[in-house]
Design goal:
With about 425 residues, the chain is mainly α. The protein has a domain of about 90 residues. The chain is built from 14 helices and 11 strands. α1 runs antiparallel to α13, α6 crosses α9 and α11 packs antiparallel against α12. The longest helix has about 55 residues. The radius of gyration is 40 Å and the shape is elongated. The chain starts with 9 loop residues before the first helix and ends with a helix.
Amino acid sequence: MASSGMRITTNAMIRNYSTNLNKALGDLDSKRNTVSSGRNFNKIAEDPAAAMKSFKLRSNFARTDVQRENTKDAQEKFDAITLNVLNCSSMTKTFLTTRLRAVNAPTSSYETRQAYKQEVDQLIDSFLQQMNGTYNENFIFGGASTKDLPFEKVDGEILYRGLPVNTQTYLTKDELSKALSTSLQLTDGDATANPTIPASNPTLSDALEKIMGKDDTISYDKLAAALDNEEVVEFLGNNNLTEGQSRVYKLKLNKDIDNQLKYNTYMNEHSYRDIGFGMKEESGQIVSTSAFDAAVNGLQVFGHGVDEDGLPNNIVALAQELSNLLGLESIEGADLEKFGKIIDKFPQAHSDMVDNGLAALGTKAKFLENTHDLLTETSQILNEQISNLDFCDPAEAITNLMWSQYTYNATLKVGNTLLSNSFIDFMS
């Protein structure tokens, strides 16, 4: 049985050789491009999977870089805030140790008190400069409003964003009783005491209990919520809701209530920054746990409102009260008692400023420092992954180029051997 074999013609050999030569040349060109560009691929088509992974890594790297810059900027802002609070603390310590001990105002002459008053006024001015400190041309103690001057002194009164820092934060039962009797014309007696009051109107004591319960004081925000309560409105209006509501809203427009509600707004302002916790929104609001709140309210640091003695909790406003007393012709009676309470309160006001300022700010600053370190490490890891994916190892790339060059040269040599002997040569 005769064996059969595949016939290989010269043309077939040449076609195969040409194909292999082109492959070798293409591989050589690819390796040259890899060495010259330093990249594993220059087009998406060269490696679609690697290209898509690279895009994702680069997107994560860019976002991480922005988050790292946000963290660094917040760090620098909090460093500036801490420095300002430290300056205020240092000034207060000096004032407490060298000035208040010497202030025997009640027994001093008017001229002597004026010298002390000048020292206090200088302290107030220095405080205001620190409390109005800026970072990147933004006021650092302005909460979310960083373009408007936060603190100022107007006619001997310390204001925060236009509102007195001494605004009372609560009403006593007696104060609310007076407000109700004035605004809603309620009395503790029957309607015959005031013919304009319907006989069915509730008594003042009933209204106080309805609004305050058994408490002796009520905050302005709770009072506002109570006055918005439909049951309370109906109770005060006594089935005459139009009249009752108008009286309620008249009470709600009380200046102190209005100011306190604005304070509540200031206290709840936020300035969120994305620092790598998956910043997201729900119902149009930033989820607080997904971002960092960089807003710092000066009222929370330096104090606001008044204590049970009616003295300011804000340390600068307290100094202003002292200045006002020192400007009197004489300090006696109620003024003398107030003077003593102010002197006694200064150390506590300073302690509160340090606790609310340095302690709270220090915790946030440490948190930012740790977050910045974490983001820096993440950025380095992402950069390494991008480099490993996009860029080649130079030594390996050169080795591959040399091998491709050797393969191409060998292919040329094979071609030279193949084509040197043609069919005519054999015929001859």
